[in-house]
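Researcher: Sequence recovery benchmark, item below. Answer with residues only.
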């Protein structure tokens, strides 16, 4: 039997679904839980309800679902996946691969609002997906299907809808239409070079783009992640990330490739009660958990010991995987200081880098060690400009053979690699690279992003990530991801480009008791060019009042802190209501959308201050709103 990395525990399968029957027939793994769903509807005082699925049960359920799908679809068809988060969605994603279908998972928006003025970004994204991928059918919960058919959205009601509730029934046929098999021979599902997934980018810097992912690229990506995080049959993963795209989706595939157990809950449950995440780690003695870096401050505010009665035991954790740059060392150290008391170790911190154009996983700065080491009170990794690294890179070699996943930092204009210590755009070459963008996206954009080449060098193409990065280190080389190039603040009268998150962090730290962390957007009035700097900050709900003087003091504090910490003058400081800063479905800031809404007068402004240089603008008028004690600082400028 051909084995991955010559490891007899891990058979080398070309697509992820083919691992399932291997583990299902394994004498020790067949009855082992593959996935556990923890429903926290009862709240913190009661243990969440459990739904468990063994590898043997997963294999049978996927077989039934795949056969059911092929009753109404043909191999190669594209299908929208809108099932609710949970075990059923897990089965459905693997069933699509076994049936040879192209899955397009989309977060299901409220169907009662479809076709009404109350539609939100999730509704528009669903309609965008229908237009771009042209699905043959859509699969959703039966109640959701009924609600859609009662809506006025013609683009959706004209689709063929399949109720996922019916696909997994025991009575569903398991015939010759689907062959699972534990080898390549006779397998009728997606081949390694066939499209398995259309995964949308987050949309942080523009409209979400549909990335075409082959089954082979997805398998390579999660095998690379398994090796990087040293996952195995004994690993236990806890994840609340959305299961529809990026890290949340790929951790489903990673669980199966590793033969591990994954405990799932919903992102809604986490937001409602952040401590649930740590309680699940403690209860199941989890060894691995992925979390966006911006969630750490939320857990510190609402997940400490006073927010729950169940004790925390975090010493089992080997990988606390931090995704979504920037990853601030101070935030990680504060988290370690608080939860080190519960056994969390600094050696578990795993800053990582990923993007949809490479399936998800790119790299991690974590390294396998013998046992647990390191002071639990602070990160043991180096830092650059307050950030932790997201990759360990090999030393430049005279060998002509490139690594399996190659990361280079280049001059964005010339495409030539820059020296260590010089900032540039991150390029990536890997068998995990997506095949391009699908649908109405112009083909030249796909070629530019997925077909980059280093000057004078043959071989595989690189993906242009549009991320700004720099490599530092002497004994070991580390990659630091600084932020999106599109979001960088171009400083007038200077060649400096300042990542926007530095401005936003300085602004928040000027008034942490009044502003919402992770809900501050900074941008220039003209994109990617020297122009006035704007900071838009959400007020905390309980700080809605306070009058003009308090609001003016907050704005002045933002201006002073940004100048002191970053050296860039703020031209406009805008305070908005809670929820007023646009974000993606995964919680990333949409700075371009915030700019557009500000210029169109559509931001829910509470107060605005304008400045000339470092002084308030002349002619600014302050007026009290009649409906409340909130104030607005208005300017004719």
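Model:
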């Amino acid at each position: 039997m051909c084995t991955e990395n010559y490891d007899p525990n891990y058979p080398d399968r070309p697509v992820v679904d083919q691992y399932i029957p291997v583990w299902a027939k394994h004498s020790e793994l067949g009855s082992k839980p593959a996935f556990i769903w923890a429903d926290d509807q009862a709240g913190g005082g009661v243990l969440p309800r459990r739904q468990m699925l063994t590898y043997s049960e997963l294999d049978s359920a996927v077989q039934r679902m795949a056969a059911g799908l092929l009753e109404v679809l043909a191999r190669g068809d594209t299908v929208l996946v809108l099932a609710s988060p949970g075990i059923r969605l897990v089965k459905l994603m693997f069933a699509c691969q076994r049936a040879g279908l192209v899955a397009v998972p989309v977060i299901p928006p409220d169907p009662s609002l479809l076709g009404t003025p109350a539609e939100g970004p999730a509704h528009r994204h669903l309609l965008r997906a229908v237009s771009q991928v042209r699905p043959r059918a859509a699969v959703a919960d039966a109640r959701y299907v009924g609600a859609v058919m009662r809506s006025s959205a013609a683009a959706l009601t004209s689709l063929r809808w399949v109720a996922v509730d019916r696909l997994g029934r025991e009575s569903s046929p398991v015939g010759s239409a689907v062959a699972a098999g534990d080898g390549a021979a006779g397998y009728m599902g997606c081949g390694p070079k066939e499209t398995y997934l259309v995964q949308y980018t987050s949309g942080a810097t523009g409209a979400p783009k549909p990335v075409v992912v082959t089954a082979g690229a997805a398998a390579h990506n999660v095998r690379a992640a398994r090796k990087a995080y040293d996952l195995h049959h004994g690993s236990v993963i806890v994840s609340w990330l959305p299961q529809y795209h990026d890290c949340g989706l790929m951790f489903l595939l990673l669980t199966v490739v590793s033969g591990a157990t994954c405990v799932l809950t919903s992102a809604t449950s986490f937001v409602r009660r952040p401590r649930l995440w740590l309680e699940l780690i403690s209860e199941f003695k989890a060894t691995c958990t992925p979390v966006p870096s911006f969630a750490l401050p939320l857990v510190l505010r609402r997940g400490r010991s006073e927010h729950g009665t169940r004790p925390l035991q975090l010493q089992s954790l080997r990988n606390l995987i931090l995704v979504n740059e920037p990853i601030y060392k101070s935030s990680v150290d504060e988290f370690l200081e608080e939860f080190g008391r519960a056994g969390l170790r600094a050696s578990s911190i795993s800053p990582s880098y990923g993007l949809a154009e490479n399936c998800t996983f790119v790299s991690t700065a974590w390294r396998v060690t013998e046992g647990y080491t390191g002071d639990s009170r602070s990160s043991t990794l180096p830092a650059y400009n307050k950030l932790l690294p997201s990759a360990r890179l090999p030393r430049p070699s005279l060998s002509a053979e490139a690594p399996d996943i190659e990361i280079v930092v280049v001059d964005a204009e010339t495409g030539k690699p820059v020296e260590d210590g010089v900032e540039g755009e991150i390029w990536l070459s890997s068998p995990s690279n997506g095949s391009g963008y699908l649908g109405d996206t112009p083909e030249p954009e796909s070629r530019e992003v997925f077909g980059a080449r280093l000057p004078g060098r043959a071989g595989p193409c690189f993906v242009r990530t549009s991320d700004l990065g720099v490599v530092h280190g002497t004994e070991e080389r580390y990659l630091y991801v600084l932020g999106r190039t599109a979001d960088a603040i171009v400083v007038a009268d200077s060649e400096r480009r300042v990542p926007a998150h530095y401005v936003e962090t300085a602004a928040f730290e000027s008034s942490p008791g009044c502003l919402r962390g992770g809900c501050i957007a900074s941008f220039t009035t003209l994109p990617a060019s020297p122009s006035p700097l704007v900071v838009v900050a959400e007020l905390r709900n309980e700080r809605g009042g306070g009058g003009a003087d308090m609001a003016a003091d907050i704005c002045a504090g933002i201006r002073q802190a940004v100048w002191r910490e970053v050296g860039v003058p703020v031209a406009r400081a805008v305070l908005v209501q809670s929820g007023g800063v646009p974000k993606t479905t995964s919680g990333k800031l949409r700075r371009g959308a915030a700019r557009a809404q500000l210029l169109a007068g559509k931001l829910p402004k509470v107060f605005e201050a304008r400045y000339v240089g470092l002084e308030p603008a002349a002619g600014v008028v302050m007026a009290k709103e009649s409906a409340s004690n909130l104030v607005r600082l208005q300017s004719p400028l």
